[in-house]
Amino acid sequence: xFKSPLDARYRVPEAPTPAPEHxxxxxxxxxxxxxxxxxxxxxxxxxxxxxxxxxxxxxESRPAPPAADRSAVRSTRRAxxxxxxxxxxxxxxxxxxxxxxxxxxxxxxxx
Length: 111
Prior knowledge:
The chain is mainly alpha-helical. 36% of the residues lie in helices and 4% in strands. The radius of gyration is 37 Å and the shape is flat.
């Protein structure tokens, strides 16, 4: 609304030659939005070659290591039960503190 008009001194000058055909934007899905793509190289011609011929055979895989002994690790079921019990006790304690606090405020306010 209150923008000043564009200053001609700061405009980019016109190119001395027109842009080559491959550098022009190509139409995309929407007619209003051009899709800019890079110039393609000749690497597409090699796409028909078998990857094993280009890179060699895949490396040999190693056998999986044996599973670690987990007998000393505590049970997740027991840990979840203890956490749930602690959360329930904590909730009950905070509820009790809130009720006692409101009762104390009511005693102080209404005598």
